[in-house]
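Data card: per-record layout.
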Amino acid sequence: MNATLARLAPASFVSIVALAAGCGNTSGTASDAGSDGAGSPIGFQPSNLSLSDIEASQAAAKAENVKAPCKVSTDAATPITDCFTSPIKSVKQPDGSTVNVVVVKSLTVEAGGAITVQGGVPFVLVSLADLVLSGTIDAHSSVLDQGAGGAPGATGVTKGGGAGGGAAGSASAAIGGSGGTYCGVGGQGGGQTTTASSVGNLDLRPLVGGSAGGGGAEGSGAGGGGIQLVANGAITINAGSSISVGGEGGPFSGVASNQNAGGGGSGGSILLEATSITIAGALAANGGGGGGDYAAGAGADGTPNATPAAGAKGGTSGGAGGAGGAGAVPAGSPGLPAAGLNSGGGGGGTGRIRMNSASGSATVTGTVSPAQSTLCVLVAKVRAFSDGP
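The structure for this 389-residue chain is written out next.
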């Protein structure tokens, strides 16, 4: 899709986390509202971050070049990473919630570089110069890994975690768990009557991850992660590269009655802030597919492109799961009612993506999912220092 975006609507996406390697004290606070930016190493006010936290990390920041697979494990107390020599720290957003931040002098992720970002809190990376991505940043959730800051999947027949957690399935009737909701509404589980509405704010302030699906007999899919990237220069996402914060697919149903499938997790947040932004690769915040029949397995995790994650197929003991939201359709699809004994899980809705630049525009020739035509993707100007974080 060729487009130069200049939509000045409010902010909308939880974040590609530009981890400020060495961003301030381990428990810093975002307290710079009203600052004039004097002495700031960044030419604008980043969302969610205190200028003092960035300035405190400036001396330890290194020029980073990621050439191989590596991992960031986020945590409110003890984050760790083997991706950067610049330090990773925990800081507070203005609402008091925690993000992990890495501040670097500059960042290049080469084609072989693959940064996996997992853990309990969102991730922010701040580059004091340009940021160039030719590899991948992956904060999607899967059965083994929780994308950074995404709501964990349910472990039983309970409502999903997060502000848009999907409605639980039933342990006494053929009702599947619904998909998690963020910007896109999660699909209803088979037999469900509970409805949902979009959650979160357009600014992606604070930065958060996606919501979990509603639990079935085997639980539900986790929400996708939250990532924020900040550059005091250009952010360039080259062709063939991607940033993904997809939700996890919902688990399968059982082989006995009233063992319904779980819903897929919603996509998370990606927030890019820079002097200029060019996207030739892919930004994806897609929902996970809903769970289906026992023999078919779990729904697919949210994809790093614009293809909807498939819901698991139906069979003799359970209905099919709904597809996850993606592309021009942010909402997850509903799971199907009982085929035999149990109902399928709903697909997770999409997350949010926001791009803030000096001009209020971004050059996009690659893939953005959810699609730019939806209200789940917004482009605006960076914040002024007087706006605060």
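Known properties of this structure: Helices lie at 51-57. DSSP finds one helix and 20 strands in the chain.

See the next section for split statistics.
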